[in-house]
Every structure is written in structure tokens, then in C-alpha cells.
């Protein structure tokens, strides 16, 4: 069997990488930190024009009907560029959460999925157990947990309090809202199932971005080692520096397999998909953490300064490492699968 990506998928990845590197530059990221809200409608419009907002939306709702395997490479590129817009969570978490609603909410589902596909609506998703919601200020619809229930709440009906993040590109908000029968779109067993799936998808989304961030930090460190000289030679020529970067490169390559395996499991609805998802989040998070550590060492004292681009991606990696389940939680899930032969998948207890 051929498990490699198709030529079309790889070509699309290359095109998106080129776009993001040209449009989401470190200079632009810094500029957005100074903008009220930290987001750029023009950039979102460009993403929509490329068709990215429609990728995982089913065709019946005006989308492309693609799955996680089609989007996972693009999520990596979003991580590599440090894209601040909520594209990855919208495509990999928010859209499938809406798709999973039953026919009682068919009208609501079609309304919002069609708007997401055409780029006129953005989604924000509340992680069970996490009081902060990312990008709630630019979302037209918030999908929020309340126990086992899923609530769909329009932004006009909530109050928002901004919370600072270690990553200035992340916009986090505490959401004040009142759950009601009118906002509840799933409950009981269906709600638990939807949130369990959303938690897995959120972890998968972060894993892909972490892998991209790891690669970006390695590339920045390698570029720096050719510029910086000691004893008349680039520091990149020294064996100790080569070993540091080689160790990270190995971690990145080893993390690709678990990530793509997890994307396949989620895309095909395989039972027990929580195990490969946790494996992927662990592998990618550890690669990103090692990349940050070694890239700082390679940069020397410069690595800690605000002016160097490294911290833009390092801080994003630190933040995503803790969202949709930290490493302790995912290790516990893998351990349970290996030694107990079972996994707790209920929302609120596993995430």
C-alpha cells in the first residue's frame, strides 16, 4: 500500500507555504501585535480567496468536502509561518463540530457552515476545562461547552475579557455567557461524543502546528549559524552545533509518522483514535520543545532578545504545548491504552 501524500496534496502544500512566507512575515506579525485585536481582515480575506476556509466544509453546504489528511500538511505550514488567524481550529475543530449536529439543527448547521465556507463567518471553540477561548473577539459564532452540552452562541450575546498570553499573537478571552435551551445544540451522550471528538481534533490541529513551528525554529537557527562567526569561521561549522540541530531534525522526522497516522485515524473515524492522536501530540510537542531549547543555545544570548525572530515561534510553541491537553494528559492516555487496555474518552475528564 502507498501511504504517501498525492502529488496534488504536496503541490497545494508548496503553494500555501509560498503564500504564507510572503504574507505572514515576522515583520507583519510584530505589526499585528500593535493593532487593536491583533487580527487582519485583509489577511483572512486572502485565505478565503485561496479556498482554505471551505476545505473541510461538506459540499452540500458549499464547501470542498475534504478531510483531515488533505488539511494536515497545510496546518503544518500555518505553524511554520506562525499564522495568527484562527484557520486551523476552524477547519479541524469547529467545522466538524457543527457537522456532527443532528437534523434537529439542520437549518443552523447549514447557515453557519455555508458562511464559513464563503468566508463571511469565523468560529471560536471553547476547550472543555479551559476558561479561556482563543479568538473569541473575531468569531461570529462561539461553540462552548457546558458540562456535556454543546452551545452555539453568537458573539453579540457574550461578554469578553481579554487575557494576556505568553504568545502575543494569541488572543485569549474569558467569555461571560448564559447557557439556555435556545443555545444548546447537543447534550447527553451526543454532547459527550462531540466534545471527545473535538478534543482529539484540537490536539491533532496543535500537533501539526507544533511540527511546523519546530521546523521553523531549526531553519532560523541554521541561518543564524551561517551568519555568526567565531575564530573566523561560521559557528555552524562546529561539530557541537551540528549535533544540536541534527538531534532536532531527527525528532521532527520521527514525529511526522505519528502525526500523519493520527490524521488518517481521525479522517476515517477509526475506533480508538485517541491513542494515535495523543501519540502525535506528544511527538510533535517534544520536537518543538527540543527545537526551542537548542535554537536558543545556538543563538546564544541573542536567542532571548525581543529583536530576534526566534521568540515569535518559540512562544507560540510553548503556548500550543499546553492547549487541547498538555503532555501529562496525553502520556496518561497512551499509558492507559498500553497497560490498562482502555481509554476514558468522556469530555471534561480526559481534557
Automatic annotation (TrEMBL):
Residues 190-326 form the Acyl-CoA dehydrogenase/oxidase C-terminal domain. The keyword Flavoprotein applies. Residues 7-119 form the Acyl-CoA dehydrogenase/oxidase N-terminal domain. It holds the Pfam family Acyl-CoA_dh_N. Its cofactor is FAD. InterPro entries: AcylCo_DH-like_C (IPR036250), AcylCo_DH/oxidase_C (IPR009075), AcylCoA_DH/ox_N (IPR013786), AcylCoA_DH/ox_N_sf (IPR037069), AcylCoA_DH/oxidase_NM_dom_sf (IPR009100). It comes from the Bacteria. The keyword Membrane does not apply. Keywords: FAD, Flavoprotein, Oxidoreductase. Belongs to the acyl-CoA dehydrogenase family. PANTHER family: ACYL-COA DEHYDROGENASE, ACYL-COA DEHYDROGENASE FADE28. This is Acyl-CoA/acyl-ACP dehydrogenase.
